[in-house]
Amino acid sequence: MSVDLSQFIPSFLEESFEGLELMETGLLDLQPGDNETIHSIFRAAHSIKGGAGTFGFDNVTEFTHLVETLLDEMRDGRREITNKDTEILLESVDCMRLLIESARDDSEYDHDKVAKTSIRLSETLGCEPATGSNSSSKNGAQSNEVNHTSGFSIKFIPEHSLAKTGNDPIFLFSALAELGELTICANTQDLPGLMDIDAQELYLNWQLTLYTKVAETEIKEVFEWVEDECLLELVPIKEAADINQALIQNNESVCKKEEPTTVNKVKNQPSIGTADAPNNLNDTNNEVDEDKSKTTKSKSKSKSDVGSIRVGVDKVDSLINLVGELVITQSMLSELGNDFEMDKVERLTSGLEQLLQNTKELQESVMRIRMLPISFAFNRFPRLVHDLAIKTGKEMELVIKGEQTELDKTVMEQIGDPLVHLVRNAADHGIEIGEVRIANGKPEKGTISLDAYHQGGNIVIEINDDGAGINRQTVLAKAVDKGLIDSNATLTDSQVYDLLFEPGFSTAAEVTDISGRGVGMDVVKRNIQALGGRIQVESTLGKGSSFKVNLPLTLAILDGQLVKVGTETYIIPLIAIVESLQIDNKLINRVSGDMVLYRLRDDNVPVLPIYQLFDLATQCTEIDNALLVVVEADGQKIGLMVDDLLAQQQVVIKSLKDNYQQVAGISGATILGDGSVAMILDIPGIIHMALEQAQRAQQVKNVGNINAATELCL
Amino acid sequence: MNIQAMAQDIPVEGEHVIEGVDFITSGDQYLTFLLAQEQYAVDILCVEEIRSWEQPTKIPNAPAYIKGVINMRGIIVPIVDLRLKFSIGEASYLETTVVIVLTYQSEESSRTIGFVVDAVSDVLNVDSVDIKPAPAFGGCVGQQYIDGLINSENKVVTILNVAHLQEVEKHRLHS
């Protein structure tokens, strides 16, 4: 019977995070009088609160309750929407996120921050006492009452029809008994004669005395479900005398302590239909609760790292359509195969063509499932810019374009942080303060724009600002200062901008808590490169800067150049290739013994024959007129000597680690059209390998030299 | 509830015992194969499939006994030549040369590796009491790979430990 609630926790968490995002966006756009937005924010908060309650995340429920109360006041128009309130609400959203994250990871959260925010919320709520703060600022109310009250005298007169609605006073009483010491006294005055009793009516009323420290609201909560069907009077018992009095009253009243139970039994038996049903329900609820508390901890942890994707129904539908077509093609082909004759070849070819079409479309649709609109990554930026504007005291706005551009989920998750960094930089270093902007003839409000679009097989994300731009001279001076370049060096603009990505490089005059420490841009570049992407900088002094991030659409598929070495086929990622050329004899230089350099315009590119590196047998060992694929990684160019250049094609990356292990110089494998396996070259890895090899060779030589020298001495 | 008790009485498909046919054999089943003239065996539950030999794609700088990788229905499967690994017989690739693809499921992961052997011979039913420890008298198969020996008619079959076979020794570049 019991339902394992913990299985729904991941979806609750996911929905909550979505809800938080919704609240955040809503709050940022919130204008006074915009009821629709407040409603949607309120709804999001409300469902988070409800969900958290169901799953027993009490701290989330409590906190969200405060937020909800504030929102409720705004919604009902009892409270003006001020900037201050919005700020507090935004802060609360952060806290809710903290709390939910801690519930997810089963970890600790920043108690101080949450406590501070909840105090601020309570204060905000409290400053308008007319708006019924007694239910909202629970903490305050509680502490007050704890000092003065030791209990309540409760008069509970239910309507006769109470039992019909499935409510049983016994449950109410047992709930009350959990809150403190409870004395129950039933009043049987209204009980009609035995002949007149309607078994489904409730004729009793009760006088209860509860000695407890809990707040009035909590007691009211117990009666929440029957509120409308009874007369309820709560009188706090303030002093010892009162308690005694109450006790005396109780003793004097018509009934004795034992009686209510017996009376209740009488009432219970005839009304089995009404009373038993909730009884069962309650039991199951308890079971569920216990179950949940047992499993939450273990499960929530193990599940948190398994990501899930929400897929639009249209995408799934198109998949189903395609599978349907595939099935039709398959049955057509198998029928054709049953009694095949040569004159049916034409139908066979067309059938196979159809199959090819189906498979391609199917592949595309499946890939599309992993694609999410980039708005998932962009969503956090309005808030970020809003906060940065306050922190820096500059006025700025964020313009987002192309948020529907789709991107692979994995890429999206990993590009978030680098983008945050770039936007922070734009806000902190790029945009000037208002006066300077006006003096420069620009509008006072700075603009940062985020734009995403497809270009070829890549996605391009542009971060533009209309700020000060990058000062070439400052960068150069700093680089010379840091010893990164020679003071006489002449650098192109792009080389200068590349300096920005050097570790520890910052041109900011002073370090702020937003940026300027010079940590970060190198990380940004590294992260982007790890995703197989690259970053370009353009800037005009006084007009603004533009950072262009180029990313592959997906990590699972790669554009590759197939090359042949000996009998083996290798794949070089297209993004790493600078150019492919036939070696011109005249441009080969041999330096320091056996190092082969190829002059490519101004650069000297070391030549690395793959057959040597991978120890393969091949006939093409002659360097003259051989084919050279010049690749670049980490700013280092290298020429890979190959036997032959084959086709360019998209390949699906498969890991070697699953069944084997990581192989130096190889980033993975793929399956080619003929079913054979081909290795994908890992360019940074190969450069690293070549360096190691060279070092080893040098050591051997040095040892040889020393040996020769010692021999000479002898 | 009674229903559960009743459910237990309902015979499950496959549990029927047909007289004269030995459906449920006692003990475990092992697949035996040949390396040169010697007989070896692996737990049959680990066997994914038996394939004929095909030239795999080389893995750069891998040890000689790792012949490369093949594509098995979209999975990249490394191929280990057991004859080279254990230095038994000659590594010749004939028509009878087969690849036994073994999958071993450990707690964290599962691994699929193909092993080249000279021929597949039989399936043995072995009671665990019949497995005798292997004497530690050298030989070219490392002791950790051997689970025990069984007598099959007048021959001795060596049972190999699949978990250990699946462990690819970390080999360094140019080792």
Features:
heterodimer, A: 714 residues, alpha+beta, Four Helix Bundle (Hemerythrin (Met), subunit A), Alpha-Beta Plaits, six-stranded mixed beta sheet, five-stranded mixed beta sheet, 23 helices, elongated, B: 175 residues, mainly beta, OB fold (Dihydrolipoamide Acetyltransferase, E2P), 3 helices, 10% helix, globular, disordered C terminus
CATH superfamily of the largest domain in chain A: Histidine kinase-like ATPase, C-terminal domain
How many alpha or pi helices of chain A?
23
Low-pLDDT stretches of chain A are 128-148, 239-244, 250-305
Termini Cα gap of chain B: 66 Å
Regarding CATH, which class of chain B? Mainly Beta
| Number of discrete domains of chain A | 5
CATH architecture of the largest domain in chain A: 2-Layer Sandwich
Largest sheet of chain B, if any? 5 strands, mixed
Q: Sum up the overall morphology of chain B in one term.
A: globular
Query: Might you state the CATH topology name of chain B?
Result: OB fold (Dihydrolipoamide Acetyltransferase, E2P)
First-residue to last-residue Cα separation of chain A? 93 Å
Overall structural class of chain A, as computed from helix and strand content, comes to alpha+beta
- Spatial arrangement of strands, main beta sheet of chain B: 8-1-2-10-9
How is this fold's topology laid out?
The complex is a heterodimer of chains A (714) and B (175).
Chain A (H helix, E strand, L loop, with lengths): L8 H21 L5 H21 L2 H18 L7 H23 L5 H16 L6 H4 L1 H11 L2 E8 L10 H11 L1 E7 L17 E7 L4 H7 L7 E8 L2 H13 L6 H10 L3 H33 L8 H26 L6 H25 L1 E3 L1 H4 L2 H12 L3 E6 L4 E3 H22 L3 H6 L6 E10 L2 E8 L6 H11 L10 H6 L22 H10 L3 E7 L3 E9 L4 E9 L2 E6 L3 E6 L5 E4 L3 E6 L2 E7 H4 L13 E7 L2 E7 L1 E9 L13 E6 L5 E5 L1 H31 L1
Chain B lengths: L1 H8 L18 E8 L2 E6 L3 E6 L13 E7 L2 E7 H4 L12 E8 L4 E8 L1 E8 L19 E7 L2 E6 L1 H5 L9
Parallel strand pairs in B: 2-10, 5-7
Antiparallel strand pairs in B: 1-2, 1-8, 3-6, 4-5, 6-7, 9-10
